[in-house]
Task: structure prediction
Amino acid sequence: MIRGKVRRSQLVAPFGPGAMQVLADGTSVITAGLDHWFVPGERLDQEEFRIHEWRLESHLGVDALYTPPDYRDSFKASPGQYNTKLQVPVLRFPAWSFCPRCRALTPQPLHIADRPRCANPDCSGQKASWAPFLAQVPFVALCERGHLQDFPWVEWVHRSANPKCRSPFKLKLRTSGGGTLASQRVVCETCHKDRGLEGITSVERSNREHEQETTYLTAHLEEGTEFSCRGAMPWLGLEAGKGTCGEPLRGSLRGASNVYYALVKSSIFIPEASSVGVDPSVLEALEEQTIARARANVRDVLEDGDKTTASRLRRAAKKNAFRLENFTDTQIESALAVLEGPAEASDRLTTESVDDPALFRHQEYMSIRDTIDSAELVVREPEGARAKDVGELISRVRLVEKLRETRVLWGFNRIFAESSRQDTAARTALLRRQTPGAGESWLPAYTVLGEGIYLELSPEALTKWEAGSLVQKRLAPMAQQFQSVAHERHLAQREVTPRLVLLHTLAHLLINQLTFECGYSSASLRERLYDSPGTDGMNGLLIYTAAGDSEGTLGGLVRMGQPERFEEVLRNAITNARWCSSDPVCMDSHGQGPDSCNLAACHSCALLPETACEEFNRFLDRGLVAGTLDDPELGFFSSL
Result:
């Protein structure tokens, strides 16, 4: 049997439904859709994997969030234990394979359980077990809408969407030993046609339809006819969609980075407004797995209009009722009203805001900029006063001693990491074959615990600085470059503002400095930007660390948020930003980095690992933070 191991968090990103990975034995597989992650059975208790995150559930329009299941051997389980032998299924893809000895190309079923061997008698000899294992082809074909299929070997070699060569086809994949696609050739031994693979990954312009973009594979598989995508979704067991997709089809290496881009939405948990006044320890106890399962059992037998009471919950919890013995019935029922009652209208986000991160983050912004003490979020004000010059530029600092971040996979892209299309529902639909019924929609997610430092710029100083003509002039080339790139690479249009670039660059500079001050690696820290225009708009940033273990982190980052330490970190970061080892080339740059959407920012000064950055390392400029060589006073922090 084809089996493999992967961390549960990796089944959210980067190996979610529709993503390919290579197992330890070299088999390339694709993760199956969500329909088969939790197969209903006698010993299944899906509620054990439930993650309670009310904002994300409302924001993404789903009924629940679940962590991917972990595998548990039944012989090690105690009697009556649930959720044993749960697995996330995968399918063998690409389906086409070739023999490394005779080079014969043959298709295999997606659901094949064993590694296939070559069936050619010349390879197997006297025993079938002597035949070599087949190797999967290194090429696939995909389109922008998220579809994926085997490379059309038969059609490509015959230069026809409907080949007239007599069947069965005898194809071979030959190589001349070179390192380019031109050295790879597919040969049909039935009709003696052959064709190289040069150009299958390239894009070109089509003059036939208003200069629209097409691909070499679509335009030249058969001259005079476009060979477009058929809508295949092998991770759902569909070799073709219900209707022809019609998008240009592009060849790709199966291990290329553009084959799968997970679309992950993250949220810092904030308590609902209705939970104010409720003991956080009671809420935490009720959300513990065994008690949450008991709550679900009570809800299953309640009649319409009835509510879960403390006495009913204690009886349903049975041997786990001891977890509630320190709380009164009144405390428990007040907490149940928060967890199971209808959410207040002011707390809920409409699905219209799914494409506007500013609307979604405003609730976090309003909570994290103040002090709060709850089971999942603890924010405190640092003790002591800030220096005058720092206080004029930074109006607020908060110590986030505890936070819980939830990351949810809600879809994926292919070819481009970002998409300008407003097709959120279509991207989510790629995750499953059947549309879920009422109350059954869910998405895979996982949670991590951590800590952080939140800081907010002075609104008055920021507004005055943004209005400067030199600031706008400095930013103009970056904004123009992004607009050009967005049009060319199908990115969503957005406004690149001085506030965004300032907050983003400051976050990167602080993270780089904190790696020296408190020992975290830059890959262990993350940024979270709170940015919206206007005097009353958001102008904050959160630097935090989130670990996958149950204990989270140990306070080293929060310690650096105390005034005397934070001011030293800030001053050192600004000082280091004034000069880069690549200057003056870096500072005088008119466009560098990803998509050439950075000014004074390179690997020597301001770039971070991709996991730490929200903006793909774009929109960075040290000049707007600390000033330039020609104008040292241009930066917001030039006075420090």
About this structure: The two ends are 63 Å apart (CA to CA). The chain is about 25% helix and 20% strand.
